[in-house]
Amino acid sequence: MYDTTYYRASSVSDATSKLAGTEDGMFLAGGQTLIPTMKQRLAAPSDLVDVSGIDALKNISVDGEVVTIGAACTHAQVAGSSEVAQAIPALASLAGGIGDPAVRARGTIGGSIANNDPAADYPAACLGLGATIVTDTREIPADEFFVGMFETALDEGEMVTAVKFPKPTKAGYAKFPNPASRYAMVGVMAAQTGNGVRVAVTGAGNDGVFRHNALEEALGANWSADATQGVATDADDMLSDIHGSAEYRAHLVSVMAGRAVDNS
Amino acid sequence: MTDQGIGARVLRKEDKRFITGKGKYTDDIVQPNQAYAAFVRSPHAHANVKSIDASAAEAMEGVEAVLNGHQLTGDGIGNIICGWGITSKDGSPMNMGAWSALATDKVRYVGDAVAVVIADSKAQAQAAAEAVMVEYEVLPATSNVLASMKEGAPQIHENAPGNLIFDWEIGNKDETDAALASAHHTTTMDITNNRLSPNPMEPRSAVATFDESEDHYTLYTTSQNPHVARLVLSAFYNVAPEHKLRVIAPDVGGGFGAKIYIYPEEIVCLWASMKTNRSVKWTSTRSEAFLTDAHGRDHVSTATMGFDADNNIVGFKVNTKANLGAYMSLFSSSVPTYLYATLLSGQYNIANVYCDVQTYYTNTVPVDAYRGAGRPEAAYLIERMIETAARELGVDPGELRRQNFVREFPHQTPVIMAYDSGDFAGNLDQAKAAADVAGFPARKEEAAKRGKLRGLGYSNYIEACGIAPSAAVGSLGAGVGLWESAEVRVNPVGTIEILTGSHSHGQGHETTFAQLVSERFDLPTDNIQIVHGDTDKVQFGMGTYGSRSGAVGMSAISKALDKVEAKVKKIAAHVLEASEDDIVIEGGEVKVKGTDKAMGWHEVGLSAYTAHNLPEGMEPGLKEGAFYDPTNFTFPAGCYICEVEVDPQTGVTEIVQFTASDDFGTIINPMIVEGQVHGGIAQGIGQAMMEHAVYDDDGQLLSGSYMDYCMPRADDVPNYTVSHHSTTCPGNPLGMKGCGEAGAIGSPPAVINAITDAIGNNNLSMPATPSRVWAALQQVSAAQAAE
Ligand SMILES: Cc1cc2nc3c(=O)[nH]c(=O)nc-3n(C[C@H](O)[C@H](O)[C@H](O)COP(=O)(O)OP(=O)(O)OC[C@H]3O[C@@H](n4cnc5c(N)ncnc54)[C@H](O)[C@@H]3O)c2cc1C
User: Do A157 and A180 reside in the same domain of the chain?
Assistant: First the structure.
């Protein structure tokens, strides 16, 4: 690890102003991605501004039809929240399936979506449920937030403060874990929302999380696992690596979509 | 009477310190004035080194020195060698390419070290290593044997044309060809054995100290065989003469073969300590471990097995191409030859067996022994062949095996080995009963109702342990003898120290070896201390690998105990005025049989050391040593039955039942043996379904972290049903065969045979990942659609 300067922020404004004053600083949340990357000397932030101690970012609230999760809420907190379990059980179960207990105890929703790993689970939840990402300066619809692999619509120094999930009529998540990393090799969030059926796929696409129009149409017409059978996914758009071919991932997308519906 | 002798489930003495985090590993050693080494490694698989500019690094804070390969060879440090010479078919010796601990003009795999930085702190050393400027001229690379053997492939070592290291053969070729030509049925398969990373929990580490005032070196290192390390460091690498070099392997957190060899880093730490006059420490990062620990397996084979009209095997012919990586590691040449092809007769009576093996250089890390070392490759080949043949012949795979079992011992195979004992049908019957094979069809039907494909596979493995008779291995090319030594010291108070040349790095020797003594002298294991792993304390020894510490290491202890016992009886007979033949040792006493005359065990010790009243002419003291050279290999064998369910939608395989029946000969501690089997099977399941060390065509390692290298986790493996059906090994005093590798040797074919049974397609390679199983299922549906 390269030398770095650590600062524990007390509020959102403290964090953003502190970061603005650094040469090449980064926010630090759960550190479950950033710290290993630094240990491998693949990242060298001059400063770390730790947002995980900001109380205002650690709340979960349900307000009518919207579940708001503070950016510094850990996966364990979301998985164990009775409010989330009641309002959007698919979201609680998704959080409970991330990594292992140690990772879930530290990793945060804000860090996960800011990082936008193409195999992460939360991006599928945000996109599939039609969430809104709240930052220190604005609100960004999920459809515009996830730009590509490890890329988001966040500006330099912009900080995620919360994610707002509208309560779906029904939603289910199914994850096929990568055998080695146990991140998603194919993860599908399927939801009946106020704006129709939404299906988001993570892990499989060669440009990160994406919405699957053909599955949305099929499930819009018939919300059943059967409806997903035979819905084709173009293998050209899929990742291919030592864990699975593009064809295999394309095949798994409809299988997992079916299981997501079964889980809903 | 103690209940801690042979056959007792004594809890492991060493676990107190391991479980409480008090183990002392090499990285825990801190020497005064210690500096840290960081290696500058090649990012290219194959390149000429044009220049190294260390000026910026040398100027950095805390940097003591930046050293390179020219300085190393200039100081007379010798090249790293392979210690087992193999002769090709045409009589020529193997083509061993030069391997300098720091590359001089050329690098040959990603991770090959070109320079080392020695600095006050680890962070300073790492930072400076990054600042060393190396100019490379990148060359085309090859990463597998098929690429290396191609016409026009990049030439990796000048003295190995076509990258061929040797072309070796064993068995009777003409007879085998004739038998196959006249066979009633033949089965032919292309079979690959996947390349693996060894992954011991503790990464490699070394702390070297040069003491200028004494002209003496001390090396703490993660070694399975510290004496061999000292011998090689001294005799071949010219680091220091043996009497000026102490090698200590303290607690070692797993080896699996990868810690047998002497790697560049240990050599460099010793040399750098002399150059800088400081202690030098290096501990591998996990990333470095993936890049530089010797990998295992990596065979590509074609095999044909022939049967007569009654389904008796008449011939078995195999061609294997083995990848040895960029350099020849210490025992690399023996693994795909004498540790492999000598087992190709399996448990079967086959009159004609022939195998030829070509080994090649590739631009990958060296490949050497890994848990099983050659025997897993042999078992996988034979056991997949016979299972597939049974399917082709339409006969029960268990019964086809049974019909061909060797039943009389000793049995001379056509490939050197002479099996000394076994009851293969007994293991088959025991495993079949425990696995309820009879109930399988009903279970398969029930699974089908749930949409699952259920399959069952056998593996009847045999392997060779207890390496090995020194003269025999010497005649086959080994550069060392493979005996073992022991010293038994009875202290004046009667407690006992056993100094052994075996090395424990997870096997539980501190417990089992003590049990052996407890059995002999009826003493509690608490009174017995096992001393190992330090060349200054222990007489010469050959170390631990190839499941040899029981059959060879304990046999040496047993021989030394014989001598101690004889002397104890002489002393007691003298003191108690009785005949030696009437002396018995039990219950902490040495007694005259049938009388109440006795002396305490400790009193015998005291008598030996006070020497006030010893028999005429007897030397004082109670300490005996022995060297034991085995008379034959030992032959652990067994039957494994695996049952799986495959989800046809995803290709995910679940192992629903795994049954083992092993023949390990005498078992000292069943609990430890079961642990070895459990761990071995988990490793075998890892190889069969998950683990794969993969390089891309340019020689970059794609599986360089646990994000991509899939190790089995607890929830990947089933509960095992482990049982024993043993025959006594006639070749050593304890009747032991060895159990350390059997699980890893026997399990992969059982798993793959079960999966291929479930999916109805024999064309499946390890690791059988969900993606591969699904693709094999697609082949089945495509074939069905075409019909
Ligand atoms: C062993 C292991 C297994 C894992 N398995 C999974 C898995 O199965 N599925 C999965 O989805 N994930 C998995 N993860 C990732 C983990 O879930 C974390 O969510 C993820 O690493 C990022 O969250 P974090 O809070 O740790 O962020 P950090 O690592 O602290 O930061 C990540 C990035 O986000 C930035 N950042 C952090 N907070 C904010 C913010 N509020 N605003 C703007 N930028 C911010 C940081 O600057 C950094 O660039 C795994 C991680 C590990 C170590």
Answer: no
d(CA B9, CA B3): 9
Domain B142-193+294-417 top-level CATH class: alpha beta
Q: What is the residue-wise DSSP string for B367-386?
A: B---TTTTHHHHHHHHHHHH
Q: Is A203 in the pocket of ligand 1 (CB under 6 A)?
A: no
Residue A102 alpha carbon to ligand 1 centre in Å = 13
Estimate to the nearest angstrom the gap between the alpha carbon of A263 and the chain centroid. 19
Closest CA to B170 of B85, B76, B88: B88
**A77 within ligand 1 shell (Cβ under 6 A):** no
- Do B644 and B754 touch, CB atoms closer than 8 A? yes
Strand B453-462 with B418-419, pairing: unpaired
Those residues with Cβ within 8 angstroms of residue B427's Cβ, 6 or more apart along the chain or in another chain = B460, B637, B638, B639, B661, B662, B663, B725
**Within this chain, do residues A75 and A135 fall inside the same structural domain, yes or no?**
yes
C-alpha of B21 from chain center = 26
For residues B145 and B363, give the distance between their C-alpha atoms in angstroms, rounded to a whole number. Answer: 10
Which burial class, exposed, middle or buried, applies to B651 when counting CB atoms under 10 A from its CB (0-12, 13-18, 19+)?
buried
User: Tell me, what amino acid is at B487?
Assistant: E
* Domain enclosing residue A30, as ranges: 5-50
Q: Spell out where B234-386 has E strands.
A: 245-248, 279-283, 299-307, 313-323, 353-360
Asked if residue A185 and residue A151 are part of one domain, the reply reads no
Please answer yes or no on whether A40 and B287 come within 8 Å at the CB atom: yes
> Which residues, 6+ apart, have CB-to-CB distance to A31 below 8 Å?
A52, A106, A111
Same-domain status, A256 and A236: yes
* Interface list for B 692-711 with A (CB within 8 A): 692, 694, 702-703, 706-711
* A243: nearest CA partner in chain B: B771
B115: three-class secondary structure by DSSP: strand
Select the residue of A180, A244, A251 nearest B706 (Cβ to Cβ). Answer: A180
CATH placement of domain B15-20+483-628: 3.30.365.10
Which residues on A lie below 8 Å from B770 (Cβ)?
Answer: 179, 244, 248
Number of domain units in chain A: 3
3-state secondary structure of B150: coil
Alpha helix (H) residue ranges in B686-769:
742-759
Fold designation for B31-139+203-253+259-292: Aldehyde Oxidoreductase; domain 3 (3.90.1170)
Q: What is the ipTM of this complex?
A: 0.96
Determine if residue B307 is left, alpha or beta; phi over 0 gives left, psi from -120 to 50 gives alpha, anything else beta: beta
**Within chain B, which residue ranges are assigned CATH 3.30.365.10?**
15-20+483-628, 142-193+294-417, 420-463+633-787
**CA of A177, closest atom in ligand 1:** 8
User: Which residue's CA is minimally distant from atom 51 of ligand 1?
Assistant: A32
> What are the structure tokens assigned to B84, written together?
């087992």
Q: How far is CA B230 from CA B246, B253, B485, B535, in A?
A: 7, 20, 16, 8
- Is the whole-model pTM more than 0.95? yes
The finding on whether A183 has its CB within 6 A of some atom of ligand 1 is yes
Are A156 and A245 in the same domain?
no
Tens of pLDDT along chain A (264 residues) come to 889 999 999 999 999 999 999 999 999 999 999 999 999 999 999 999 999 999 999 999 999 899 999 999 999 999 999 999 999 999 999 999 999 999 999 999 999 999 999 999 999 999 999 999 999 999 999 999 999 999 999 999 999 999 999 999 999 999 999 999 999 999 999 999 999 999 999 999 999 999 999 999 999 999 999 999 989 999 999 999 999 999 999 999 999 999 999 999
Q: What is B420-463+633-787's CATH number?
A: 3.30.365.10
Tell me which residue has tokens 């891309």.
B696
For residue A36, give the ligand 1 atom closest to its CA. 53
